[in-house]
Design brief:
By secondary structure, the chain is an alpha/beta fold. The protein has two domains: 102 residues, Rossmann fold (3-Layer(aba) Sandwich), CATH 3.40.50; 239 residues, P-loop containing nucleotide triphosphate hydrolases (Rossmann fold, 3-Layer(aba) Sandwich). 42% of the residues lie in helices and 15% in strands. It has 15 helices and eleven strands. The strands form two sheets. The protein has an eight-stranded mixed β-sheet with strand order 6-7-5-8-4-9-10-11, sandwiched between helices. A three-stranded parallel β-sheet has the order 1-2-3, sandwiched between helices.
Length: 372
């Protein structure tokens, strides 16, 4: 299979691109390479070419698309990986993206300065994952120019893939194993993309011997994500270990989810006091979200304010039927019942977090260097 010829004949104009013959000694801007079964040897060879700057960027394809091969390809710095049979629309999209990036590239490239929003439950079962997932989707839906990433830090009980009915190939354990390789390309290849436009980085979801993220690892990951996403939403679960505390320190806001029950409100108050007293977060950055609110309850919102010694940032109405239908079907609440009060509530919450603000244009991801 002459992959270079496929690209040239089907998608490239000769006046813009040139296919170099094997005997040409010039440095190619793009190497298109088909992997055989001996992937380890071939990837080592490609790595040596990249390290020696003998090629610009690398496009890979293979009949074998197991996760191990994909991870090795990403780890050496391959910009794109095509499974076979190669689909023309995928190549066309990649080339269009390349040309767009080249047209907008140069020293004026501006990174984003995204916001990090952590979502934490005051105790288990209060709906923090529901809030994180549907808020992230509402932020994406609010402005299609906004790029949003959703990160699951529930190591053992991460449920985001179930909530969105996706089967991700990778989780953040791949990043902890390859932290020295972490860059823009590696990150975007590890992330899974949902139909809503969300980029997902799930947790391992089970104890598999992976390296747990350290505070330093999370700092590096989040700094990189802030440069490429307008919002990074983190489902923090209920843990307060060193890594979680580092995430809170880096967060612009912590959405602390609670419900109208004395144990939850007591825990909420303890968390607010602990995080603020010991300098992890100022009280002004901790926003209490009242979930599953029922007007006719034994406790009132005034009781809640008195218990937490502060204000409530947001109140989400109780809608058990719609919420459970969304969870069980692996869909967003806005997909299940777009006109329901709870769906409209998440849209208003997104507006409160990001009020009438124009977003940056989404970053265009390029895969080649243009020939000069």
């Amino acid at each position: 299979m002459d992959l270079g010829q496929i690209f040239l004949e089907n998608f490239l104009e000769a006046k813009e691109f040139k296919l170099l013959p094997p005997e040409d000694s010039r440095r190619p801007d793009l190497l298109v390479f088909e992997l055989s079964r001996d992937t380890t040897k071939e990837l080592d060879f490609i790595q040596s070419l990249l390290d020696a700057d003998k090629v610009g960027e690398v496009f890979l394809t293979s009949e074998h698309t197991d996760p191990e091969t994909l991870m090795k390809a990403m780890s050496i710095g391959a910009k794109e990986f095509f499974s076979q049979p190669i689909k023309k629309d995928q190549i066309r999209a990649a080339l269009e993206t390349f040309k767009n990036r080249q047209n907008h590239s140069g020293p004026k490239t501006v990174h984003k300065s995204g916001q990090i929003l952590s979502v934490m439950g005051s105790k288990g079962g209060v709906g923090s994952t529901t809030v994180a997932v549907n808020l992230a989707a509402a932020l994406t839906d609010k402005d299609q120019n906004k790029s949003v990433a959703l990160l699951d830090m529930n190591i053992l009980f991460g449920e985001i893939p179930l909530f969105l009915e996706i089967t991700p190939k990778f989780h953040w354990g791949e990043i902890t194993k390859n932290i020295d390789r972490l860059d823009e390309t590696f990150l975007m290849n590890v992330l899974s993309r949902h139909d809503s436009g969300l980029h997902i980085l799930p947790s391992p979801g089970y104890l598999n011997g992976h390296q747990a993220p350290t505070p330093a690892m999370m700092a590096r990951l989040l700094e990189l994500m802030k440069k490429h996403f307008d919002f990074v939403i983190i489902d923090s679960g209920q843990t307060t270990d060193e890594t979680s505390l580092k995430i809170f320190q880096m967060s612009d806001q912590l959405l602390l989810v609670t419900i109208l029950s004395l144990p939850c409100l007591s825990n909420t108050n303890k968390l607010i006091q602990s995080l603020s007293t010991y300098g992890y977060m100022e009280k002004s950055r901790i926003k209490v979200v009242m979930n599953r609110y029922i007007k006719k309850s034994d406790l009132s919102l005034e009781d809640a304010r008195a218990s937490i010694h502060g204000e409530l940032f947001w109140t989400i109405p109780n809608d058990y039927t719609t919420t459970m239908a969304a969870i069980n079907q692996g869909k967003l609440i806005s997909q299940i019942s777009p006109k329901s009060p709870i769906s409209k509530n998440f849209k208003k919450m997104a507006e409160a977090i990001c009020p009438m603000e124009r977003g940056h244009d989404k970053k265009r991801w390029g895969f080649f260097k243009r020939r000069t």
